[in-house]
Amino acid sequence: MKHTKSSIWPCFSGLFLVLAVAFVIPVLSEGPPSKLVSTEWLNENLSKENLRVIDVRGEIKDYWQDHIPGAVYFNLETMRLADHGVPVKLTPPEASAIMLGKMGVNEKTMIVVYAEQNDYKATYLIWALDFLGHSSFGILDGGFDKWQKEKRPVTQDYPMINPVGYALPSKLNEEVRATLEEVKELVNVGSGILLDVRPVQLYTGEKGFWKRNGHIKGAINHFWGEDLEDDGTWKSKDELKQAYEKLGATPDKTIIVSCGQGLMSAHSYFMLKHILGYPKVKNYDGGFNEWSNIDELPVETETGKPSPDGEKLVNERCNSCHGLDRVHKARKDKAGWEETVNRMIRKGARLNEAERQAVVNYLSGH
Known about the structure:
3 domains
């Protein structure tokens, strides 16, 4: 039997249609039921179009070794830079939009972020997305550790990413970001709750890295890690709500969360805003990093008193500090002052950690 072109074409066109249907990528019809995305939901929807999984683990070698299929790696530090001299604040929105577009993310993409567990690297990116007005996002509850323990699929293959444009909204979501002026007002007027979510040793000033150690005047300490179970998942809503109510942090109040540089506080921000549903929560990404460097702003230690005055300590105690008066002959770099003051303490100088830091900071500033 002789076949003409016209008789063969319907057969081929039907085959092409079948193949096209077979290779259509299913579209994600709706997002997860919660901003805390379960491993089950992500596993079921990995192949869906308009879903981008972002890996923000601390080491690129972890991503090389294995990652969730389709996940793109993002170094979180590329989203932070100096702002008016203050280190590591959120990049301008235009820069963030370019970075998101390079990862194949547009303003409508559903984003699921994961780190090792539920740590602050993932929540910082979520907070940044919130600030941009991006609403379709979630965090993988339990992170990559939980995914791996459940023996879910991993790969070493990189995804094929087609860069897209990310359209910024006409107005940013400024309500989620606290400015220095807003923190000043809260401190002076008492117009809300200021939570310092750093480890207690940093809050009290026993340890620290700044020009002045301690905490912003009036801040209440609640370490961000206390919100998690041992396996890295969040505690129940009831447990979290009770813990924060004891601190006076209730849904009717404006709550500003702070740490050193906006990372740890982003974790508490996410929990309060998206797990407990508190409406008036802001992350102060300038943090103690910005506040402590402005000399006229009040800093307190564990006693609730201002941070020790290094100059006053040297002038008042030098005669009773077994040679502390001779530090002026020491080397002028900070390491030299540290060594000298520590030696004086070993010889009997009575200085607690906050006072020691104040003396070193004062002398190294000469």
